[in-house]
């Protein structure tokens, strides 16, 4: 199964326990493969670089560099063409949808309410991390 995993889910997976982390464990085990793009990876670098995550990174003995390196290792990176017309209020969300189409993804995993409200796009289900874990596992 090929999945596009939104940045908010990856951040949660890397820093905390719960369904996003369980999804990360499925990626590590090879049960599911992750597809990403240069834009989503850049967004992850930006978000993980925020000072508000310093304490949690220190507490978990995790470095930003190690976390980012692991995501890059786990992800197949492709550059999707933009959608022909905007779909979401937030252009960053359209990047997720464009990637899913270009990658022929089976699933989009997000914690973003705007994406989740779509429920699917071009036949690709959009689900929260807990549902993704249930579908994959």
Task: Describe this structure as you would to a colleague.
- This protein is of the alpha/beta class and 137 residues long.
- It has one domain (2-136): 5'-nuclease (Rossmann fold).
- Helices cover 53% and strands 15% of the residues.
- It contains eight helices and six strands, in the order βααβαααβαβαββα.
- The protein has helices at 7-15, 19-29, 38-48, 54-59, 64-74, 91-103, 113-116, 129-136, and strands at residues 2-5, 33-36, 75-77, 107-109, 120-121, 124-127.
- It has a six-stranded mixed sheet.
- Helix 1 (7-15) crosses helix 3 and helix 3 runs antiparallel to helix 5.
- The longest helix is centred in the C-terminal third of the chain and has 13 residues, at 91-103.
- The protein starts with a strand and ends with a helix.
- The relative contact order is 0.22.
- The model has no long low-confidence stretch (mean pLDDT 94).
Would you spell out the secondary-structure blueprint of this structure?
Layout: E1 2-5, H1 7-15, H2 19-29, E2 33-36, H3 38-48, H4 54-59, H5 64-74, E3 75-77, H6 91-103, E4 107-109, H7 113-116, E5 120-121, E6 124-127, H8 129-136
Parallel strand pairs: 1-2, 1-4, 2-3, 4-6
Antiparallel strand pairs: 5-6
Helix pairs in contact: 1-2, 1-3, 2-8, 3-5
